[in-house]
Structures
1.
Amino acid sequence: VYFGSHSAIPPFRLERPATVAAALKAKAAAGRRGAYLGGGVDLVPALRAGTRRAECVIALGGIADLAKIAVSATAIRIGALVTYRAIETDRRIAAAFPELSALWRDVANIRTRHAATIGGNLMARDPSYDLAPALVALDAFLVFASLKAGRHVESAFDVTEPPPKDALLKAVEIPRLAGRRFAMDRSLKPVVSVAASVTPRGDDVVVRAAFGCAFDRVAWGVAVVPAGATAREAAAKIARKLPPARGDAVAGAAYRRRMAETLLARRLVALGLAS
Amino acid sequence: MAKREAAPATIAIAFSLNGEARRFAVTPQRILADLIRKDCALTGTKIGCDQAVCGACTVLVDETPVAACATFAWQADGKRVTTIEGLARGGRLDPVQAAFKARSAFQCGYCTPGMILLTKALLDAHPDPDRATIRAWLSANICRCTGYAMIVEAVEDAARRLREAAAE
């Protein structure tokens, strides 16, 4: 009688650090054979499928620091272990970024949202995942911890930069800017997804846009346009600087490129630019 | 300091399984679904896709729906785990189970334990859910037989039964 899983996970050593410094030391000792575990949504199936191998799994769940949310007048800092469900339901996040909270109700399914963490989403570095484009559009940065003389120190990195070696993603920091509005369109996934923000600056408007699915990695652009500019003009200005899109069985490169610009223009209309 | 276990050493864990305190020695790679099905012989927790997608393996950990096929057993340490076998009390079906039965909300039944446990979590969070909320939650679990209509009706029926029981 068959009772168990279809495939077994190879044995590994388990580390359960209680601090960021202990996690970094465990990762440094394990090197490339070590893997951080947050919610496990990506890692566990990957270990089972054999697409990831780990001789040491470093479970981060015991590090309370990584699950904190802190709001100040200028920014909101969201710990790497904060779940999708918290993005959706936490009142502080909803107050600071209501569009992000509302968007996250439709990302993945309820069971995944309870387990999945923002750190796992970002460190998977999958261009079809939604958080990186959203954060790029919101001008966020990532806070990594690394070891220095036995203690952990923090450094800020752009969302799209490769993660520093053996560093641990500690948090995401999103600046709070007066008048900034944000929107994301996921309706054409897996062809393309578009995240955009619009921020007034004097007589101009700063448009930031980022694109998932359509490129090998999250692509993004910024345009400063006069307040009266049309959404189509702003979208074209950003789209001109995009790298070549991916072409595959899902969609051709030209279609993806075209729809990236079209969806961006639609989102910008929703954000108040002239149609 | 980090707790360190050298493979293939086992880890001692303890959790409440359907209200009963249980202790186990598990390897780090032991999956919760396998522990429940093999070691505890509770085969109501089904394994479908084995990739945390289909929802057949859904159990409740501290009342939260979890894919047992993608959860290590040690992650349940110190928590409350509820499987489909833990719902009926004194020979009486849980109101959610009773609603699924009354509405014939299953055909082959393979997805039903996961559907019922997901519904328990849904009705904990939303005692009077609208259809959009029900459909959004149920999208986490896949049924290839029923077409979902009777499952949605069963969730509404279960919500009604629970509200009536709470009002008594």
Note: Chain A is about 30% helix and 25% strand.
2.
Amino acid sequence: MKVSLHLAQEYSNIDLIKTPTDELVKLATERLGGVEGYNDFTNRYDKIVIVKIISCVQHPNADKLTVCLVDDASITPEVKRDKNGYVQVVCGAPNVRVGMLAVWIPPGASVPATFEDDEPFVLGSKELRGTVSNGMLASAKELDLSEDVSGLLEINPNQDNVKPGMLLNKLPGVHDVVIDIENKMFTHRPDCFGQLGVARELAGIQGLPFESPKWYFKPENLPGATGKLSVKVKNEIQDLVPRYTAIVLENVMVRPSPLWMQIALRRLGIRSINNVVDTTNFMMALTAQPLHAFDYDKIAKGDEATIIVRKPKEGEKLHLLDGKTIEPHQDAALICNEDGPIALGGIMGGGNSEVDENTTRIVLECATFDMYNIRRTSMHHGLFTDAVTRFNKGQPAAQLLPVLHKTVKDFVALNGASVASEIADSHPKISKPKTVTIGVDFINKRLGSDLTFDEIATILSNVELGVKVTSDTLEVSPPFWRTDIEIPEDIVEEVGRLHGFNNLPITLPTRDITPVYPDHLLKLEQQIREVLSRAGANEVLTYSFVHGNLLQKVGQDPNDAYQLRNALSPDLQYYRMSLVPSLLERIHPNTKVGYNQFALFEMGKIHRKSAGLTDEKVPQEADVLALVHADTAKTTNMAYYMAKRTLDFLAESLQLHLEYEPVTGAELKGHPYFDANRTAWVKFRGADLTLGLIGEYQPQVTKALKLPEKCAGFEVSLNRLLEGTLFHSSAAYKPISKYPSSSQDITLKIASSVSYGQLFRELINVLESSDYIWQLSPLGIYQKEDDTHKNVSFHLTLASYDHTLKTSEVSEVISSLSDQARKILKAEKV
Amino acid sequence: MEKVEKVKKDLLKKLETLEDKRQILRAPELRSLYAEIPKLPPEQRAAVGKAINDLKEQLEDHLSKSEDTATAKPPIDISAPFGINSQFPEMLPTENGSIHPITREMQIISDIFYRMGFEVSGSREIDDEYHMFTSLNFPEGHPARDDYDTFITTEGFIAPAHTSTMQNRVLRSRKEQLVQGRPIAVLAMDRVFRNEDLDARHEHTFTQHEGIYVGRDITVGNLVATLKLFLTTYYEKDIQVKITPFYFPFTEPSFEFSLSCPFCTDGRNCKVCSSERWIELLGCGMIHPNVLEMSGIDPKKYSGFAWGGGVERLVMMKFDIEDVRHFNSGKLEFLRQFK
């Protein structure tokens, strides 16, 4: 939203801009908000002057150039002049002629259109094909005043004070400061989409009492209708179009707008079209109320135009001003005549009713549209016009007549038009803003301030809020344009803002000393992070969404994944069902640049449709930890055991003991990337609680993601892990014995079909039933090629609390271990 | 047709001898079979064509089966601590380990608020319209909804664009606390999503910290003081702060919160604040009475404030990180700088 300080001042009763620009912008930032920056045009037109063309001679060496003498009333210093005091300028414009008033950029001045470039174009005195040109005569585009490049900007001599030698920036609106405020800031402030609304705020934030122009409060008297035409409005959808007014004007002459209006529109970022369209747009820029002009002769039948406001009929089409043909949304407010649609109400006019150079009579529309319906229709068609920006904030019906009357008067005064009909006003029922009753105490309590009745009343009435003071409350009645004020909190905001939020005292809230408790899951995650980074692993974050290709590469079924329907990026198609594919995808980019051995881990959320919904009817989420271990070296252990080593280390650090159980291919349906031959279920030892899976990956996955041969990892449920740490962890400490410990190795030969885990469990059972302090650690597993048996060696350390162990005691334990292994697993001691 | 059968036999035999078995699909025998189709009487062409295609499929089948068995790994004892005839595996060197800078910063932030008496929680990654908009006082069809470019699933679920999706849940589940005279103070921190194109300064995925404080007679001054205290603790130095008016549907009044640049003293050549001296940090405001009411809290009795800010921004300023895309890149070159 661009705000021209020149226009704001033009429509103000008080001096808004006596405050230096810098300070005013700072104040606006602090008390109005969302200021993105400002554009100061003050110095842009320095030295640029209005001149009279005295003579025009064909350039001796160039067909299209003219050599002119111009009269600047000799106000420009240090420029070469002839004996009459005129300056020679070479010009290429087709419209240059003796006697016209043009704009001259003298040597030393820069071209305004290049002012914001890194190196603005500064003019000098240069030969053009052998003839000296001192500076240049400029087009409106070069002056950054309009888009017109067809020729020199011609200055109308019939304006106050205009004469040769007058500086260009003396013309109204040339000299300006334009502040840019974020639209988002005013989502709730329909009035601030007009210069008038912001002017009021600029007064309020400076503590000045603003008075809106009288015409905005009360419709001005109109000249009586001189014509015999009429306009009728049939509004069939009063819920979507609460109010619709229209009037017919005649003797309209379509031509370019006056320069000041072109400049004003340009400063506000609105394209100048012609005087008819510009006059309506200017009024919109001023009041935030969009208007539309139809060519009367294109829509009327004889002496009467009938406007029907309705929803579209089945299959009905509308050709718009921008050249597109649409089939309007079923709830669109369509503006029609008897024959069919002529505009998409509140959004864009139709091509069939457009004002063109032959137009002499117009129907002027000034209407109110339901903001939600405007938004729905504009989104549906992808049409975002200046009118939509304003209507979708909700413009009040009460401003229609004031705005329409003022616009008609402008048409009469500026464009010589005359009134040809009475005003048609459909459904002139207007909802009045609510009066809000609020205590001074309430305001001060919310703001932490100490403002008095009077201070508050002044703050509010500065921006034209009606304030009635009763014994201990304020009755605030907002004017019709303040549709945002409904509840006491809105008044609190208004007072705080206009007073200056940064002027409020700041104090910390007070609370008792009740401790808060940590979130167990977040605490666990932090522990895991520390342990795994200690284990040399690197924590990564990867996106929560994945591409369908990735799912395909790892064999996951996309039908179980929640699919995004509107992502801009093609990489974001599905919510991930597991973190593993995302991690696997990150391996190759790292091995490629020379990282040979690493582990990546991530903690995050996964979603599967098959997991169903929560009580709140939103998808179930699961928090998981995943780690992948990659190794491009050929010599080390199998990848699976690397991953297992890391997981066991993590478990031990959390005082948990894990067990690994074989999986079948069928059980891996949801995790098809794991290789069943080398994958295990992870469980807590002694509790029937599955944590997740650990394993190596399928050959196809390895190939598709260019993984190194040695690659393995795990994915475990964080919620289960949390359950484990809360209910299944065992304190690690055992009292230390005063007596020394003894060690002995034991090797057992067992069938290769018996797993290490089975053997280990049997041995542990024996040790756990003894009274010794013990530790059993694996030493090696040996198997000859083609042998049906393997040798498993352990190192046993034993100690007692009450005596030094004898060798015979240790041997006794060793033999009870081998006895047990023989009895259950047919093992032989080697 | 007989010819097809013959070629089939030949090729299957040839397949066993081939070193690069994929070459079978480019065998000249196959090509010459295809070449013969146009010479056949029209009524036979379709049948023969199909027979050749079938043959090709069979060959591919054979190929993929033999490839599978070729690369399929033999089973291992998954309960063992290491493989047969191998060593106990070495762990990776501790000095290679790293914690992600975002999660580390989240920990630092939550620690400070925890010490200040805030509970800390996460938030959801898939949610519904009610929690994203309706419960936060964005009426159906309200233009403020357009300011959030949300990802939507085919079912109409939403990837939250802010952690404010937790406000209703946090307030609703703790409203009893208020009755007991204790304020609600919660920090919700997690991932949020905006449907934007990626560049060095824009991410579709980022992290937000959302603070919620509700009690009796809570003021704008309380909000500013709380955030100021957080920032002076976070940067371990005196920080100036200011608020400027803004608009969010779920707070009234709403603010943009700025702090004086903690990285420079005079703004000269400061990359972080672009020599402006002020850094816009987050959005905040007094919780809208409708939001309290929808959570079952009486806005006449209680008031509160809330804020939402990005974690990436803090990390980027702290370490002078030039590209937001590094965070989710999984590049070890980036990650290992954060031990």
Note: The mean pLDDT of chain A is 93.
3.
Amino acid sequence: MEEGDVERLDRQIVTLRALGQSEAAVAAHFNISVADVRRVIDEKAAVALSAQNRVRMIYLQGLAIEELEAIFMKQARAGDIQSGNLCHKLFERKATLFGLNAPLRIDPIQLAESVQGRLTTTEQLARLLDDIQGKGKPVIDGERADGS
Amino acid sequence: MASVRTDLDAEIVAARVAGVPEREICRRLGCARARVEAALDAWAARKLAPENVVRMLVDDLGRLSELERVFAPMAAAGDVGAAKLVRQARRQRARTGNLILRRAPASRPM
């Protein structure tokens, strides 16, 4: 079998799998083993999902989004809400695509502090009584309100 | 070496953006697959350079502000759809703007 024929056969295998045919059905169709079908899929996947191909895909999607933006931004400027919503979605998609969305700011230390800082009414009363008795927090580090 | 953009590169990129498969582009333009990939790689490298991405971010922030300017008066007049859009635009601006703020200190000499 020539190289071109092999390439064509590989493409047909991938196409049938993409159309939802099972590996066994594809193998039976071409009179090859299931392992052969898997090998072809793996080889194609390795190429399609390579780092370089991902960069190309991001670039092309970015361009396609910008084309749509250019069209619908005009209509949004004229006050068309549908176009405005679409533009917003496009900005959102582009930001995600290019990694431009800052992560939501959740600071675990602040969260822990805010949970700790929430006192029950009983604890609040107990602390108040401690303060009156001079058992409260030190006024200055290492010093207590009662002078100890 | 700086990449030189040719008309063929532009045609290749336009065709790919329009969804034409690389194989088909090779057939239509009579070039090898390696040529198509080289064109895409060169343009992608330029487009995705950090300074270009920051520019794009700033452009988008400007457009989001523009959406706000257009739809805020409609929202104020009671248009629920416009109000939702303004809220979403503000949220998105905050997210991307936050990224700029986070990056800013690193670029400033201490």
Note: Residues 49 and 72 of chain B are 34 Å apart (CA to CA).
4.
Amino acid sequence: MILIALSEADANLHGQSGYDLFQKALATERADGDLRGAIQLYERMVKQFPGDRPLVASALARMAECYRMLGDAQARRIWEQLVRDYSDQKEATEAKQRLATLEGAKPARPLTIRTVLSTTGRGPDIETVTADGRLGAGGDSSTGDLVIRDMSTGRLTRLLAGSLDPRSMGAGTAVGRYVFWTVFSPDQRQVAFARYGDPENPSQGQLWVIPNEPGSRPRLITKHRDYRNIVPRAWSPDGKSLLAHIERLNDGWQIAWISVADGSVTVLKSFGWIEKPDYFLTLSPDGRHIAYSALVREGSQESHIYLLSSDGSRETVLTRTAGISDSPSWSPDGSHVVFVSDRLGRFDLWAFAVRDGRPAGDPFILKSDVTRIVHLSTTRAGVAFYGRRDVARDRRSLISLVPLGVTGEPQAPSAKIAGANAAWSADGTRLSFARSRAGGVTDIIVSHLHTGEERAFTHRGLQPRKPSWLRDGRELLVLVVNDDTTRSLHRLDTVTGEFNEVLQFSPAVIAAGGGALSEDGQTLYAATRDEAGKPLDRIVALDLTTKMQRELIRIHDRVIAGRVELSPDGNRIAVRTETREGSRTGETAHLLVVDVDGGDPREVHSDMRVAVSGLAWNARGDSLLFAKRQGANRWVVQSVPAAGGSPVDASVVFDAQPNELDASMDGSRIAVSTTETVHEVFAIELPPLSSGKR
Amino acid sequence: MMAAAAPALRTAAGLLFAATVSVAAAATDVPRGLDLYMPVPDDNPLTAENIDRGRRLFNDPRLSRDGTVTCASCHDPQQAFSDGRPVALGVFRRTGTRNTPAIINRGYGRSFFWNGRAGTLEEQVLQPIQDPNEMDMTLADVSARVGFTPDQISRSLASYVRSILSGNSRFDRYVDGDRAALSPAEVAGLQIFRGKARCTACHVGPTFSDEQFHNTGVAWRAEAIVDDGRFAVTGKERDRGAFKTPTLREIARTAPYMHDGSKATLEEVVNFYNDGGRANPNLDPEIQPLKLTVEEKRALVAFLKSLSGEIREGLVR
């Protein structure tokens, strides 16, 4: 359409340059998806060809569209300019319509968000709610059970027992049978769910259905050696088929119907590794359309919402705005798709009118700043249930500063700080740690303990790894994930805020966390493997100037776990190792110390019966501190002489697994980083949403 | 349990959503292994009329200057819509520079030609007609000869190409639960395909193609890239010598292989990748020596041959 406006005469009049520039801008906008780059090109056209009104009007219209897709208010300014200055051009007509739409968009009435469930630690989740809002269902992350919850009384009914070892819970590490991804049938008499931990194939996801009656026996719908995950997301209205998201082994993802009767699979759409779809696909109330979100392109953080007809005959993209748009759901009458989007720089709840599987209006905000939430279910009455991203889970990181060297009763923390993976400065006045904020961005924080002053440092791809202080007391060694997935260690100058890359490396070879830097900054001590796919079985000293490696430790029957810790005098390194099995259950502890100049490693401590977490040198460098499990939810910090000997309790006890430990240089306190799992489910009463009404 | 399951569900889904079954679903019976959803442009829906007209145009020699070449001359249905030659043969026996791709399941494609220079099938189907080495016609001349506008020719041919589907191979039956569909050697080959040989880095999904462009070194000869490939479209240096991942469906019937037809057999292709492709400045990092044993190579070829299935084209009557 726009190209038609550029008549041949116009092109000839201006040579090809205006036309060429427009083509280039269009390609930048549409083929490359680089909206800001396209805006620059359109701006150039406006400046270079002011006398070519059709060309300038076209460029302005595209520029406004780019701004609109970026959620930038400058779109309005340009539409006003088109209406005011280019009323003779056809683009002015569309600009008027755009402005009218903006004027007509009334602010949504305030919606309240009610917290339905808020617990910490492991326990029963709510993953789905019945259409009448009476019952919820979900897996119990401490037992693996399938649990039905009465939403009004909170009473729990365990429909199916699991055998999950709670210590092992985690992606790819769970031991025992457990349930995940539950969904009620339309008549509420059955629950479909994914089940994991089959003894014969622990990594395989299976699809099961169980009647919603205590004592019922579950029925396997399908399992498949090619399926890593089969996630049921909805039942067809007649209850005969399940809409599922299938993750295939080494072969991408699929949206499929699965017959409840015989488990047969009909694939609607397949995705390669390029556009990983979201798990949260939803079926319209009439069963005719599927709303799902997927990444825009390979490696992109942006996602769009798509509408796919449930017979696979048609698909439409619903959102084209830059940013994340995901977690789609349907209004009870199927007239709107509700979704979460950060197109305005924060996560808001939006709605989009749809008709016959196509957009039927502009999106509008239902509720601002809802944070990163995911849709669970919407009742017939229009109450939408949401959980935190990652299926009703949020993980809060806390750093506890606890007195050290005290014997007797466990000591209470003297302070708690929101953040993760702390390290003391040598003078004991500052603590460096990681803190995450909205959008998955990590900052490195330096907190002055006497004044409470905090300074945040940020860098694209910064990781929440423990930021080690270098000997100058000014710089930190921090980890960055680059756009091409390689890692880089950077020296962060806490005075100037400058980041200087020390080393770029592949996580396939060097441990993803990087390593420890020598006092002179010339040598990196890191865990490595011979080649990608092999276990981390070596500690090397890597000369950062010559890139020459010197092997310090090679282990044969275990793998290196956790960080490489350099002693305060810089002469020794300590590492923790575990068996392959131990990496699944954490049930082995094995601490090694070796001189940085080489020599045989010394086994400082070995206990094959218990789980160990975290590792740190004490201030004098004569002992190692680590946390050891003593019971299902009890972790005790212990100290063991670096020369070997029996460990002793340090009177520091936690009910959550410590991730990192770090002792202050005066030996008086220890910083313990833990992660607390929080389950929160919210209810949002949607306003009446129907075709033609807001 | 899952044997012959998919067709049963298709019927169920068809009944369930009978009210919404589109022309696309009605006009083509999608073979096992392919997605039910095939992207079809809103302005060129799959209609019986278009498919039928496209089929006739596909076999019409009037589309070529000397009246000797049809689309089917190079995209021969008997050879899985390829031609068995290293490079295409056009009017006046002019030769092209690249191997004729098998145009099966192209309705699922995202870009077309070895370098992806066409973004839609509607755009793609008109180019061979105008290529001097292929049919060497102008659209005006063709339009006058066949009595349809270029737009009608484009839509019809594109619709017909969308109807050309290959699936229901022994591999598909195996995936659907028929464990006897593949021999032990073929199963071993499948495991190598997905594992040690890392073929799924590029040959992924129902069409066995990621629809992306990779430099495997085939175009690197005498210390130079002899065919720019994707570079001609993007102008990006990293794309020089990169070509679109071809489908592996019907691979046993579409020799010779590679964009230049330089590998006569599947064994040669496997050996080429086993050696890590051909080193060149733009070699895709996924291409690395595979260290496959003779038995593993044999199993991999056996598996690839199991990807021959049923080819359907035109309207299902």
Note: The CA atoms of residues 94 and 100 of chain A lie 10 Å apart.
